[in-house]
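Deliverable D5.2: sample structural annotation.
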Amino acid sequence: MRPLILLLLTGLFHGAAFSQQTIPVIPAPNEMTVAAGNFTFTPQTHIVCSKALENAIHPLVTKFKTAAGYDLINGPGKNHPADVLVQLDSSIGNTEGYSLEVGVTRISLKARSAAGAFYGVQTLLQLLPAAIEKKELSNNVLWTLPCVSIHDQPRFGYRGVMLDVARHYMPLDFIRKLIDLLAMQKMNRLHLHLTDSQGWRFESKKYPNLIKVGAFRKGTPLNTTYDFASRPADTVYGGYYTQLQLRELVRYAQKRYITIVPELEMPSHSQAALASYPDLACLDSNGKKFAYPQDIQNEFCTKDATFTFLENILVEIMDVFPSRYIHVAGDEASKQNWKKCIYCQRRMKQEGLQNVEELQSYFIKRIERFVNSRGRQIIGWDEILQGGLAPNAAVMSWTGIEGGIKAAHLHHQVIMTPGAFCYLDHYQSDAPGEPVAIGGYLPLSTVYGYDPVPASLPEGEKSYIQGTQGNLWTEYIPGPAKAEYMIFPRAVALAEVAWTQPAKKKFEDFIARLDQYCKRLDAYQVNYSRHLFEIKLLTARDQQGRILASVEGVAPGREVRYTLDGTTPTANADILRGSLAIDNDKTLSVAVLTEGKVTDQIAKTFRLHKAVGRKIQLATQPDAQYSRGGSHALVDGILGNNEHFEDDQWLGWEGKTFEGTIDFESPASTSSLQTRFFHKPTSWLWAPKSVTVQVSDDNLNFRTVAKTEISAPAPEGPMTFSISWTPVMARYLKVIVEPVGIIPAGAIGAGDLGWLFVDEVVIE
């Protein structure tokens, strides 16, 4: 007889439900008081400001003219005192701070700078109905906002998003749209990753081959071959931005108080440049180039010609982009060719360098001197710390928080952007049908819960943390629609992280405000993700031997509906209340509905078997990054995602043996094991070499009942594995899975340890 499953609805969130009186402004203001009454805009409403603030109030004026048909500047009220007065006020301490007073008859907005006034305008717009964002006239709308007193300023001066346009070219219209959206949420940096091994997007007047060759690679958009030697019959992919286009983009961003930070990759990720100018590549001791058709980490050679080339490019970049920061990357340099290159070895001897890490430091420091000589400052990924940090460099910490901590200890400026919290190319849900991503798992709640200031930093060094940034790498993102899906609403959450003091943040309140903010994204036709919650299904066995499953991650008061046939729940599906009994294998779909529409959902397949809910002891714990479900995930009756391994059900070990012992609590008859391994060599994931099953009565003396060797399958994805034995009675059952070990030669990651990923351990 199969065990019975009961489904119970519980809450991840605690405290009172969202109050209807909460003002839906994002990022949340740091100081706000709500008063009685409202202010209503009419055709007679008149706005007054100095000429210096005309650009700052431009969004308010243009949106009212478009959505309401009101002319706030030249309308019928222009001859009476201002209804909306916008002024500069030097008493406001923060450069980007503002003060907003909304009364029944008058609005006053004061700011220290035009940027602060602009942010006050964004708050004012969010206090109005979402129809203000529409691109056509909205009739029968009462343009009313609540009376509030807001004194606000950002927590950090750097609040940004990085867009990788090198892996996939992004249209200028989309970049302008992204700038508009970032401005709405008070972000002030757009970091453009302009060059990489898969493409060069910046027009150089001095080096035309960079756009003739390096901007177009052989193959379709998702077939990133790094092959720029395309023949006439080949399909090519790519594009580039002219300097004129980029100058216009800079001006467009400046009007929205956003600085564009350009990035020129060096010394690695340089294949597009080396394909355009092969003489910049390393040479071996025989004067021959190294083979690197598929090596995206190939570096520029450190000979003088390389620095002449890079300095000339930097002159052009700095002429187009006025940003104080010039990003020089510095990440993921393998430096293997440098160890054998005749020029690089000569350089090391000339400069007295002990290793290639010091050579990389020499490279970055030389570039820094040049950039500093032109009044700018370099910023690079945290690998620029290797071999010694350049004297004036700022650090973008992506590999974790350690690089940022080290740079702050050295009293260098830091932008925190660790992958675990800020990589927007990671999966944001383990729901079925999610578009393919590069890997990782980053739900909205994790982004929102991030604090860019490491707790371990001494108080005197915290000021070196200048801000935070979300990064969208586009290897698997061929166009704007998918880019929007990956960026939003996670970038909205990061905007609040960067602006609002931690004590003022509460995820449940943010989600309530985000519901309203999404209506504004709808007006912009943003293809944002609806995954607002981190819905989880958990299972346990009660004292009566039943299996209890619970739903976590849904805020109180939300409408939750379900189906048991795998279909997406609608407003007509059963409401999930109390407990739900499942007595055989089912696919449970749970959805959160808002105003009758699905705002988030998850689906999991339940596989009922003898080990469900039992204790399992692991001899070696999985890697911290791939252990969210804990060991219980192996015997919770829930199968992992069929499309990717970044969910709570798959556990991963890097090069280590999986050994799990199940305790049935009393002797049980078993005769088969079924499980799944995720085989994906392109991501360093390999099927195991062997599986062994042992049983014991005392958890000390085990005897083998089954063992088999495994040949790695060709197709990538979940590999189903089964093994059986003559029925045996025993209290304990041990499963031993030997990993592939070292990745074989010729495969991606050859020489590194392969990963072993294991799903549900089904015992019958």
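Annotation notes: The two ends are 11 Å apart (CA to CA). The CA atoms of residues 378 and 393 lie 5 Å apart.
The annotation will be released with the project's public dataset once the embargo ends.
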